[in-house]
Design a protein that fits this description.
Length: about 375
C-alpha cells in the first residue's frame, strides 16, 4: 500500500511527466560519436596506419636471416582472419554468408589466384626493400588497365598513359639506385672478395625482381579474374574475405607440408629462441592487420567521396615507402628518394586521371579507376602494394 501511495504522490506532483520530456534526449549521445566517426580524417589515417602496419609486420617476419616458411606464414594469416570474423559473427557484430559448396566451387579458382598473388608478393618482399617493392607494385596497375582494354572493352586516357610512363621511370630509377647501393656497400666490387659479395647481392636483387614481375602478373590475373567471377556469386565484402581465406587454408597447408622444410633444424633457424615470440606475435598481428585494412577501406569509402578515396590510395604509397627507410635498413640515397617521389607523383597523376575519366565517361571506366565491387579485395591489393 505504501508503494501505491508513493505512486499517487508522484502523479500529483507531476513526476510522471518527466519520462515524456526526456524521451527525445537519447539520440543526442550517439550523435556525438557518429559525428566523430564520420569525420574523413579518422578513416583516412586508420587506413594508412593499417597499410603500414601490415607491410612492416610482414617485412619483419620475412626479413629474418633464415625465414623460408612463406606458405606457413600465409596459412597463419588466413587462420587468424577466419577466427576473427567467425568470432565477430557469433557475437552478431558482423554478418556474412554461411558456407555453401556450390559457391565455394565457383570461387575456388579465385582463391588459387589469390594464393599465387600473395605468395609471390612475400617472396619479392623478402628479397627487395619496402620502397623498391612499393614502386614496382605500381606496374600492376598498367597490366590491369590493358587487361581491361583487351577483355572488358575499357579505355586508357592520355593522362593515364603519362602516369604509366612515370611508373616505369620510377621503377627504372629504383632498380638503378638499388643496384648502385649494393655495389657501394661492398666497395664497388674491386677486389676478388668484394666482387664475390657484390655478385651475391646482385643475384639477390635479381631474384627479387623476378618474383616482383611474377607478382605483378599474378595480381593482375587475380583482379581481372575476380571481376568476372564475382558476378556469378554476387559476393559482398565479408563474403569475399570469408571464402578467400577459408578456401586458401587447405591449399596452404598442403603446400607448406609438401614444399617447405619442417625438420627441427629448419624450424630452429626460422624461429630462433631469442626471436621466437616476437616473430609469432608479428605473424598473428599481420593477419589481424588484413582485417583492419578491409574495415578501414570500407569505412573510408563510406565516409569520403570516391575522389578522396582515389587520392588516399595514391598518397598512401609515400608513407608506406618511407616506412622502409625508417624501420629497416633500406639505403637512403638520391636515387632511392628520387624514385619514391616519382612513384608518388605517378600515383597522384593516375588518381586524377581516374577521377576525370569517371566524370567524362562513367560507363567505360576501368576497374582500376572506379571503386572495386569488393572492398575487401581492394584493401588486400592496397596492403600488397606496400
Amino acid at each position: 500500500m505504501s508503494d501505491e501511495k508513493k505512486s499517487a504522490e508522484k502523479l500529483e506532483n507531476g513526476f510522471a511527466e518527466k519520462p515524456r520530456a526526456l524521451s527525445p534526449a537519447p539520440p543526442r549521445t550517439p550523435s556525438a560519436i557518429s559525428n566523430a566517426t564520420n569525420q574523413p580524417i579518422f578513416p583516412v589515417l586508420s587506413y594508412c596506419g593499417s597499410s603500414i602496419l601490415m607491410t612492416v609486420t610482414n617485412k619483419y617476419v620475412l626479413s629474418g636471416r633464415n625465414f623460408n616458411l612463406n606458405f606457413f606464414l600465409l596459412c597463419v594469416q588466413s587462420v587468424v582472419c577466419i577466427t576473427a570474423i567467425t568470432a565477430a559473427k557469433s557475437f552478431n557484430l558482423i554478418t556474412f554468408r554461411d558456407f555453401n559448396t556450390d559457391e565455394a566451387r565457383k570461387w575456388f579458382p579465385i582463391s588459387v589466384l589469390l594464393i599465387g598473388m600473395i605468395y609471390t608478393s612475400t617472396k619479392a618482399l623478402q628479397f627487395l626493400t619496402i620502397p623498391v617493392y612499393t614502386i614496382f607494385k605500381n606496374l600492376t596497375i598498367i597490366l590491369i588497365a590493358y587487361g581491361e582494354v583487351l577483355w572488358f572493352g575499357g579505355s586508357v586516357t592520355g593522362m593515364a598513359l603519362f602516369s604509366f610512363g612515370l611508373m616505369v621511370l620510377s621503377s627504372v630509377i629504383a632498380a638503378w639506385a638499388d643496384i648502385q647501393a649494393a655495389l657501394d656497400s661492398v666497395g664497388g666490387g674491386k677486389s676478388a672478395t668484394q666482387s664475390a659479395e657484390a655478385s651475391d647481392k646482385i643475384s639477390t636483387l635479381n631474384a627479387g625482381y623476378v618474383w616482383m614481375l611474377l607478382n605483378c602478373f599474378c595480381s593482375a590475373t587475380y583482379v581481372l579474374g575476380m571481376r568476372k567471377r564475382i558476378k556469378l556469386t554476387n559476393f559482398k565484402d565479408l563474403d569475399t574475405m570469408f571464402y578467400n581465406n577459408l578456401l586458401s587454408i587447405p591449399i596452404l597447408i598442403i603446400c607448406s607440408l609438401c614444399l617447405e622444410n619442417w625438420s627441427s633444424a629448419n624450424l630452429q633457424l626460422n624461429f630462433p629462441e631469442g626471436e621466437r615470440n616476437p616473430l609469432i606475435a608479428s605473424m598473428i598481428l599481420s593477419g589481424l592487420s588484413g582485417l583492419f585494412i578491409s574495415y578501414t577501406s570500407a569505412w573510408c569509402v563510406r565516409v569520403t567521396t570516391s575522389t578522396t578515396y582515389s587520392m588516399v590510395g595514391a598518397l598512401n604509397k609515400l608513407p608506406i615507402a618511407l616506412s622502409g627507410l625508417v624501420f629497416f635498413d633500406a639505403p637512403v640515397t638520391f636515387g632511392s628518394v628520387g624514385a619514391i617521389l616519382v612513384g608518388f607523383i605517378s600515383g597522384i597523376v593516375y588518381a586524377v586521371a581516374k577521377i576525370r575519366q569517371g566524370k567524362s565517361a562513367p560507363k567505360s571506366v576501368l576497374p582500376t579507376s572506379a571503386p572495386i565491387t569488393s572492398a575487401s579485395s581492394q584493401s588486400m591489393r592496397d596492403s600488397l602494394k606496400s
